[in-house]
Design goal:
Layout lengths: L2 H26 L10 H17 L12 E3 L5 E6 L20 E5 L28 E3 L4 E7 L11 H18 L1 H5 L2 E7 L2 E6 L13 E2 L4 E4 L11 E6 L9 E2 L1 E3 L10 E4 L8
Helix pairs in contact: 1-2
């Protein structure tokens, strides 16, 4: 086990210890000063600071790299969100190797995708979004090193109340539960030369490949879903320097024929005879 992985495990364990102490103190009355309960929390951040000082920023890329050119992972008409073309880290953090990650949502025609609502409906079914069930394609000839698709696709978080729930409660719980609960159902491809591609928030039960399979560029791997820490059905795509998002660092990418779409930029990719509709 790498030192980076151990730091992540200890960090989560200390946060869970803090929560357990608070609950036990409130329900059982442990008899010690309340501030004692916060010691594991303080220790967890001390560990992060020490790891940062000794090893550099724990999740940021070690050095600048030229973007790796790969084929697009989707086909049809889509738009980009949280794009590294606008800022890095694109999602506001280097954690989980997502420095250069991008989110894309299907936009088959104007107004086809349900808009954000302040009050109602609080949530929508995944099937209401055109991205749900869209085929996800291999971006290069590669080997599948991770294939997880047993988590449920949840309702959207596209209202103010649902978004607050996601940000305040759900995201924190998923982070403590580990990377699998953050990225949801996912695939990781080994592209060679120390580069790995992550497809996150995949639809439950849709994976057509298993760990160890060899795939070719353009081959269907799974379908777009809404599992994990997701507001609506979409694809979260990124390149990394390792197979484990918990310890990997981000690698910049560019999609062949598309580049890196900017936020809200619409891009369209034709469906070839070898790709599923």
């Amino acid at each position: 086990m790498s030192g980076r992985k151990l730091v992540k495990i200890v960090y989560r364990a200390l946060h869970l210890t803090f929560l357990a102490l608070v609950i036990a103190d409130l329900t059982l009355g442990l008899g010690h000063p309340m501030w004692w309960n916060f010691l594991p929390l303080v220790l967890s951040y001390v560990i992060l600071v020490v790891a940062h000082r000794w090893g550099g920023a724990p999740d940021s890329p070690r050095a600048a790299r030229e973007p790796v050119e790969v084929a697009p992972p989707v086909t049809g008409r889509w738009s980009a969100l949280n794009s590294p073309a606008d800022r890095t880290p694109s999602h506001g953090t280097h954690a989980y190797g997502q420095t250069y990650a991008i989110d894309v949502v299907a936009e088959p025609e104007p107004s086809a995708r349900p808009a954000f609502r302040w009050l109602w409906p609080i949530a929508r079914r995944s099937s209401a979004f055109p991205a749900f069930g869209a085929p996800l394609l291999a971006v290069a000839d590669a080997t599948v090193v991770r294939a997880v698709d047993d988590q449920r696709d949840h309702l959207s978080r596209t209202s103010l109340l649902a978004l607050l729930y996601l940000m305040v409660v759900e995201a924190s719980v998923r982070d403590l539960a580990g990377v699998k609960r953050v990225v949801g159902n996912h695939l990781v491809l080994d592209l060679g030369d120390g580069t790995f591609a992550l497809y996150a928030h995949v639809q439950r039960g849709s994976s057509t490949v298993r760990e160890g399979d060899r795939v070719t560029a353009g081959q269907q791997l799974a379908r777009c879903g809404n599992s994990g820490n997701s507001t609506e059905p979409h694809l979260h795509f990124q390149l990394m320097d390792g197979p484990d998002p918990d310890t990997a660092r981000g690698v910049p990418f560019t999609w062949r024929g598309v580049g890196v779409p900017r936020n809200r930029e619409i891009f369209e990719l034709p469906t070839s005879a070898s790709q599923p509709a």
